[in-house]
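User: Show me a protein chain along with its predicted structure.
Assistant: Here is one chain, sequence first, then structure tokens.
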Amino acid sequence: MRDTIRLVGVRARGNHGVFEHERADGQDFVVDVAVEVDATAAADSDDLAETVHYGVLAEQVVAEVERDPVDLIETLAERIAAVVLTHRAALATEVTVHKPQAPVTVPFTDVSITIRRARASAPDGTEEEE
């Protein structure tokens, strides 16, 4: 059985983008993360170690947005997904990176990318990142 932990609207400032002013001035990014887990063991044991600590994960998401700049929000989403999958209980993740202040010349509300990444089962039955 698979269950989902969601972080919605995590905000951080980053200097990502292809234009010089984006790199120099920075802008706000908003990230939504869904983490697929099997919550059965955590629920049975009432032990935080059996699940994904969403407080720690939120801090890691912010750290990824704040670290060295990249050109594309696709790259940023990949970095965040990789961090999510370092958590032992994370089976898969869906990451959406919103760039509400993107340099678009027409009225708009948001620009975003959503990616999904999962672990694949290795031949020995252990989990490995896809």
